[in-house]
Amino acid sequence: MPDAAGPAAAGPAGLALSSTPRTSHRRLREQGRTDRAELFAVLRAGFIAHLGVQAASGLMVVPTVYGFDERQLYVHGSVASQSLTAGEQVACVTVTIVDGLVLARSVFEHAVNYRSAMIYAVPRPLTDPAEKLAGLRLVSEHLAPGQWEYVRQPSRKELAATTLLAMSLDEASVKVRSGPPDDGDSADAGLGLWAGELPLAAAWQQPLADPALPPGIAVPAHIGRRAGTSVYPEDPDIPDP
Amino acid sequence: MPDAAGPAAAGPAGLALSSTPRTSHRRLREQGRTDRAELFAVLRAGFIAHLGVQAASGLMVVPTVYGFDERQLYVHGSVASQSLTAGEQVACVTVTIVDGLVLARSVFEHAVNYRSAMIYAVPRPLTDPAEKLAGLRLVSEHLAPGQWEYVRQPSRKELAATTLLAMSLDEASVKVRSGPPDDGDSADAGLGLWAGELPLAAAWQQPLADPALPPGIAVPAHIGRRAGTSVYPEDPDIPDP
Description:
Number of strands of chain A: 11
Strand content of chain A: 25-35%
Largest interface: A-B, 103 and 104 residues
Shape of chain A: globular
Order of helices and strands of chain A: EHEEEHEEEHHHEEEEH
Radius of gyration of chain A: 20 Å
Oligomer: homodimer
Helix content of chain A: 10-25%
Number of helices of chain A: 6
């Protein structure tokens, strides 16, 4: 994404859009999506996030799992929490899905098709056990729907040992690029070169049983039925939160 | 990756490892990989990076394409450059490949199988045209091997309009998690629940011609032969730089 630059504004929860300096369109205005539904579409379709925080040792960008509800994103914050507890700093968390390569007639016009959401918020470490449990359930259900009810849920001790950060979705931006290259009507179109897209698709594979598993335990349906399905679905069949 | 916390140390270029406070193992020591070859394996296998920088408006985590050679990573820096030109701040750029879900017997032991590299460096905007051209070529060849020679290369004007940042690979860390869940010998193993991995695989699809393309232009071999191949190969068949 040489073009993944200027973020667009999504707005305060459930409302139309008010941009802040941070989320206003700085470049490539046409790539901005101003609909809050687009934010949830990216969050639903994505799988991991990259959380950027100022830690004591400096800036870090940490890959992390996440979940979300209508108002907040929930991320694991084991590293981040070192510094986050120190002060109220705005962090940025970005979810990106790569959909393919855009192959143009010139190097300069090459691009990536992608869907991306950037969220700016002060991460709030959850301390209330009920709120933490609810947040963890959202993370779990986002990653592996059905597992929360199937497996052993967190003990009090495990819950205490888990750092979960909540980040408001009020300040967010979404950018999407799709489709063919932009130089089909440029002078380069006369070069006689092939141009187009090289899409990529990520699919869940067949489950692999833990070698430690005793014989006779079947793969539960909520896991088995994911095999062959898209990891980053274009239009996830899940309602908005 | 609830577990994607403590980074490990890779070392100065081409040498064994010397950790800094930032890249030393803080947690989960067993996940650290201290071999520089592991860093290049992640960089070769990855496709996009997430660049974290302190911009004037605050911290941003921006998805970007990249390329690399033995000593440096090259990233597009259109947004980042706003603030980067202002001062010498260390940025963090992270490349993450998700390989699958780790389904344990308890919520707490769930994890993600992944490969991740974090690089800490002061981004240096390239100004020398030859150096910039060489860096762009590395980015282009990382994304789409063969395109650099096939398409029109950057004009002087396009080169000037491109912001490319070089970041030293001297301070980096790599983390990899693979394999089944860790609770196969825990008390939870007696629960009789299925546990294992749900791998994911991303593959390049058939190329899609730009609708603006006149008939009779064949897909070049360097593009066509990627269809069906892995986007994030485990062991890319490319030598170290």
